[in-house]
Amino acid sequence: MTGSAGDNTTLDGDGEEEQAVFDDLELVASEGFAAWLRAQDVSLAFGTPPMKLWLIGTDDAGELSVFDREFDKVMGLAFDGLNRLWVANRYEVWRFENVLPPGMLTADGHDRLFHPRQMYPTGDVNIHDLAIEGDGRDLWVNTRFGCLASTSETASFVPRWTPPFLPGPQAGDRCHLNGLAMKDGEAAWVTCVSPVTEVDRWRDGRRDQGCVLDVDSGEVVVTGLSMPHSPRWHDGRLWVANAGTGELGVVDIERGRFEPVAFAPGFLRGLCFVGHYAVVGSSKPRRGDIYSGLPLDDALESRGLEPHLGLFVIDTTSGELVEWFLVEGRVRELFDVCALPGVRRPAAVGLIADDVRSDLWVDLTFPLPADAAVGVLP
Amino acid sequence: MTTVRLYSHHLAASEGVVPWLVDQQVTLILATGNRLWVVGVDHQGRLEVTERPFEGAGPLSWSGDRLLVTGLWRLWSLVEAPAHRTDGYERLLLPQTAHTVGSVGMTDVAVTDAGPVLVSSMFNCLAVPDPVRSIRPVWTPPWTTALVAENRCYLTGVAVDNGRAAYLTSASTSDVSEGWKDEVLGGGVLVATDGRIVAGDLTLPRNPRVGPGGEVVLLDSGTGRLLRVDPATGIVEELFRVPLLLAGLDLCGPYAVLGAGAPTDPPVPGLPVAEVPVADHADLPRQGALIVDRASGRLVGSLAFQGLVGPVEGVAVIPGGTRASLASPRGLTAQTQVSLDAEEELFRPGPSES
User: Domain A8-374 belongs to what architecture?
Assistant: First the structure.
């Protein structure tokens, strides 16, 4: 039940919880987690800084299949629903492409093989949520510059939107803009920790100055939140993780109110939906760090709970925490989680092993069609 | 002779180098396997050399606003940063995107009006980076009967003319796996993308470039020659000869800058340059670059690496000043010098009325 980096290790469940060890990180899944993934026909992608990108699926026997790759501080992720996976990390945005034709499996039985096809250096801009617009373009939260931005072929990024209270995109994290909700393929809402204009001043508002902003109008939809993250529009409702209280809930847009749906033990950040289930990420506060000194501390203490790093599956109809997948060891942050619907057992090519150089995918149809664009005529 | 001491190597420049860089107002970029070298002149008129780690740095191409760098498994694009983001450098090229093409044997790269093209020796083709796959082949030579992952003819270079891929060099016209090795002596050709063989009898030709008059300038690496070919008549003229293997070529006005490799270690035995006793040319760089006046064939200047550097595999001349610099993808500058693309209109919602 152990595996090494990049192995597609299957966890066989013979105990109440399933466990495996990757690079001194212990993975602990709830008993029904694999069956839940199977039943929902889904797999999950997420990162745990400093170095891991995880792809969690199931094998033919229905057991968990865990695939890990090394990427520097994985932040936001987005999947186009078929073949394209975007991953933001510390200084870069990566576009992964599945190279397997529909129905084809790798020799190891993976139904997607994501190749790291293109990389855009962004510099140190602290990317949080990343989304895909209706036309396929990437759009992400540039937290350091306080704006929404896209990748550029000629610069670090293209600024696309900035909140009305900021002077414009410039270096210096003022309000800690962090979350992005899309609706009908367009940016619709963002979250920030405190709508202030002085660099770093957002830290003073961590307990209760957090808000959700409407992208079109720039207006505050709801305020009084504690380090809100990961707004998502799902099934007609605006969900948000109120990280500083450990609550996942919905925003009553009309009344400007946050309505908690569930509590989970951790700093809740990172959110995706699978049917009527929410998969929410959880980070571990540590005394004196940015995630501590929040209402969450008391909420944990009063319940006698310790915070956990990992994923919680919450039934949105009941608010019940039904499954979990935890990563234990020297990790304490998780920024986002992304559902891969219809994908059973994904794999990705990493940057360290030879396959990024040697696993070549070239259309060998011959003769070639003429390409007048580059001057190659029949 | 000016010698600049670097961390682990020396780069010695002949007397002609600094005046030439100043006259032309250019900076040279040399690629040597795992490093890019930036050779310029500082404000005091001294040779200025910086080295940047760059995994697998090989063939280079400057296209007016960006530098294409072939890495070990990626094709990089370095773009000039806006003036306010240059970290004290006069001009700074920052890595802005990298396409994972894999190890397809990139022997040359160029920019057409439709974007970058690369030569894949492994697939015997001209190709473009593909959005999903590794590469998309766009052209194969007329002697090729199959598209396979076998280095058959050893394609070695591409020239762009008027924004379009126009000429390629090939070490042979072989159509069998690794067949070029049997035909390398005199078997090389310059071929146009319309399939016409423009010139033959070449020995490991490389890096064709189209000059201002439409002439093709290229290296005949195996004989250590710089050649000019009239594409209309196919007449080949020798401009310069040196007992060194050559790789990497860029043109600068009436000059050419050639990358030089080690004559004692050719990739295949029996190349003419290997037969020349090294002692006869002790003044020539074993590894470095040569600046040649194409009209007279005169060697204007030379740059020589002293120490274990590896042969030069790529050369680019960056116009517009002697103090251009570039950032390594993993370096602090690339991480901190953030540039904004302001081409697109920023959407800013108005102030709240409530």
Answer: 6 Propeller (2.120)
